[in-house]
């Protein structure tokens, strides 16, 4: 049994009552939050039979770990950045992931999970390939991961339902339940109705979830209407894919009826503002989804689509895009955005975390309030301090302020370093992987006048 105590700190619980402690103390026992409250210098620690680690939280803020609700392991960040979505997929994304081996996939996953953890992400919802490799990298780094295959029709040379089912039986619940395996559907243009129905059937048989791209671009919707005479959300609904055990990524171009279907089925949406903007896909109807009661989390998408796995950047972009598009500075309030990045994502994935409450899973991060003066100035009166911290976290800081990361009650990042991993070797291996990958792919040229 292990115990971690973080004392004399600012604790942003992000619970349902906006509870804030300053100065505060939080105690973790094994994988759960045991106690949380106000700290005083003369407090006496209770007796405990196991090892105790005490962390001085002075000039730190403690908050729930971030949940990246739509993530892809990355191999080609910064390559072919000027291509729109469909051309990018055909010319960069699919050739690169088809070329992966289990060994190179593990290298890419290790690098991706290291960078995610270092910026405060404790959970990734990773749709990719070679799930044994993803699980191995997640176990080594200590990140919590929901992993799924890239299922498509056979002619697209990606993954099959059988691949995903086999990976489920090999990897689901590894690492004390820290690794979960869902079914993953690439997107409708690479699918058909029978494949969707097969995924819906297997979801029920396995009792697992589905991670799916829906309504990311206008061309996707046009393709669906042309081939099926139905919109993407309607297709997913009829196949039995939607529900509380489904995360629909993007959902940029939804009709009123599609918003209604997502709300009625309890389907969660991963809003990926940075990716949607960079690829020129548009701005999602976030406010309409919120009004309909849809649970919305946040994701960075592939690092190729956003060039960063930093969820603090994603939170900032999310708020800014809503305010700018709807010309309303009251939207995207930091308190709401922080919950999208934590508890909403945890709810979508069925994880008992996302807020600092006694009994919840101990997925916790500590940020350095002195880092590059990102959090200066900061009020000392507790309620004002809470409000300013929320503002600084969403609008004024980035993941480099993260000092310590705890996942499942275990310290996995300390002093900004991922423990148990050779970060420099991971960087060297990733560069070598990319060099070999590019050599095997057609040269990418971009017409700057036309965009592609």
UniProtKB/TrEMBL annotation:
Single annotated GO MF: hydrolase activity, acting on carbon-nitrogen (but not peptide) bonds
Keyword Repressor: no
Pfam families: Amidohydro_1
Keyword Hydrolase tagged: yes
SUPFAM superfamilies reported for this sequence: Composite domain of metallo-dependent hydrolases (SSF51338), Metallo-dependent hydrolases (SSF51556)
The Amidohydrolase-related domain, residue ranges: 61-412
Keywords: Hydrolase
Protein name according to UniProt: Related to 5-methylthioadenosine/S-adenosylhomocysteine deaminase
């Amino acid at each position: 049994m292990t115990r971690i105590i973080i004392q004399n700190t600012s604790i942003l619980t992000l619970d349902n009552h906006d509870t804030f402690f300053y100065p505060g103390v939080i105690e973790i026992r094994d994988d759960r939050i045991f106690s949380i409250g106000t700290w005083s210098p003369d407090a006496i620690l209770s007796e405990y039979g196991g090892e105790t680690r005490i962390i001085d939280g002075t000039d730190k803020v403690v908050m729930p770990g971030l949940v990246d609700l739509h993530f892809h392991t990355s191999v080609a960040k910064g390559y072919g950045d000027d291509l729109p979505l469909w051309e990018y997929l055909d010319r960069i994304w699919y050739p690169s992931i088809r070329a992966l081996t289990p060994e190179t996939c593990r290298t890419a996953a290790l690098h991706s999970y290291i960078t995610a953890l270092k910026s405060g992400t404790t959970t990734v919802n990773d749709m990719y390939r070679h799930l044994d490799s993803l699980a191995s990298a997640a176990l080594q780094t200590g990140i919590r991961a929901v992993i799924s295959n890239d299922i498509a029709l056979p002619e697209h040379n990606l993954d099959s339902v059988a691949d995903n089912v086999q990976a489920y039986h090999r990897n689901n619940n590894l690492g004390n339940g820290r690794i979960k395996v869902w079914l993953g559907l690439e997107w409708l243009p690479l699918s058909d109705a029978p494949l969707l129905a097969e995924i819906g059937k297997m979801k029920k048989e396995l009792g697992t979830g589905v991670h799916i791209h829906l309504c990311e671009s206008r061309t996707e919707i046009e393709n669906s209407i042309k081939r099926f005479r139905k919109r993407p959300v309607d297709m997913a609904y009829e196949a039995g894919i939607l529900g509380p055990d489904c995360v629909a990524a993007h959902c940029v171009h939804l009709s009123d009826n599609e918003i209604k279907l997502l709300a009625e089925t309890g389907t969660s949406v991963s809003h990926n503002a940075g990716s949607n903007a960079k690829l020129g896909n548009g701005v999602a109807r976030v406010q309409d989804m919120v009004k309909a009661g849809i649970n919305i989390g946040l994701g960075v998408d592939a690092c190729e689509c956003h060039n960063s796995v930093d969820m603090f950047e994603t939170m900032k972009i999310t708020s800014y895009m809503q305010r700018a598009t709807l010309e309303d500075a009251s939207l995207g309030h930091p308190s709401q955005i922080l919950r999208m990045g934590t508890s909403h994502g945890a709810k979508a994935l069925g994880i008992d975390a996302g807020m600092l409450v006694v009994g919840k899973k101990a997925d916790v991060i500590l940020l350095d309030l002195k880092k590059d003066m990102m959090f200066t100035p900061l009020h000392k009166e507790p309620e004002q301090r809470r409000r300013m911290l929320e503002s600084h976290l969403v609008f004024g800081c980035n993941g480099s302020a993260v000092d310590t990361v705890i996942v499942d009650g275990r310290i996995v990042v300390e002093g900004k370093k991922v423990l148990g991993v050779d970060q420099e070797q991971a960087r060297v291996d990733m560069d070598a992987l990319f060099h070999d990958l590019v050599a095997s792919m057609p040269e990418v040229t971009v017409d700057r006048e036309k965009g592609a």
